[in-house]
């Protein structure tokens, strides 16, 4: 019996959850689903410039888990880009950081409530 999956901490939900080619016949295109934690790994590593170890600490998972999440996300992105497929972002076992974690590197940017307290 596999171990239960831990919740992965994310800073914010994606602002846009659907991507894909423009034009006619979009309803017939296959859709790839990326989980929210996969999106978060792409954001942290590729956009924020964190290492996989730093990403793992941010998401409160093991480094090997962060590496697997990131590899899965990159494979899905590549499939969408190369094959012209739609990408949706949803699902996953995640919890929002809430903006009050000392380990979160971007809470001050993402949570307006934190900014108002300054």
Report on the structure:
The chain has 118 residues and is of the alpha/beta class. It has one domain (8-117). It has five helices and five strands. The chain has a three-stranded mixed beta sheet with strand order 2-4-3. α1 packs across α3 and α2 packs across α3. The N and C termini lie far apart (48 Å).
Order of helices and strands: EEEHHHEEHH
- Secondary structure tally, helices: 5
Shape: elongated
State the share of residues found in helices, binned by percent.
40-55%
* Distance between the ends: 48 Å
What is the C-alpha radius of gyration, as a whole number of Å? 16 Å
* Poorly predicted runs of 5 or more residues: 110-118
Q: Structural class, please?
A: alpha/beta
Could you report the average pLDDT, rounded to the nearest whole number?
81
Q: Give me the count of strands.
A: 5
Strand order of the largest sheet: 2-4-3
Q: How many domains make up the 3D coordinates?
A: 1
How much β-strand is present in the residues?
Answer: 5-15%
Profile the largest sheet. Answer: 3 strands, mixed
């Amino acid at each position: 019996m596999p171990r239960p999956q831990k919740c992965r901490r994310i800073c914010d939900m994606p602002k846009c959850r659907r991507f894909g080619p423009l034009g006619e016949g979009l309803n017939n295109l296959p859709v790839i689903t990326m989980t929210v934690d996969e999106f978060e790994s792409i954001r942290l590593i590729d956009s924020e410039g964190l290492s996989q170890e730093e990403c793992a600490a941010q998401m409160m998972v093991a480094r090997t888990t962060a590496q697997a999440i990131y590899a899965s996300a990159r494979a899905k992105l590549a499939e969408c880009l190369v094959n012209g497929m739609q990408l949706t972002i949803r699902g996953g076992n995640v919890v929002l950081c809430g903006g009050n974690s000392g380990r979160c590197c971007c809470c001050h940017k993402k949570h307006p409530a934190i900014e108002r307290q300054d």
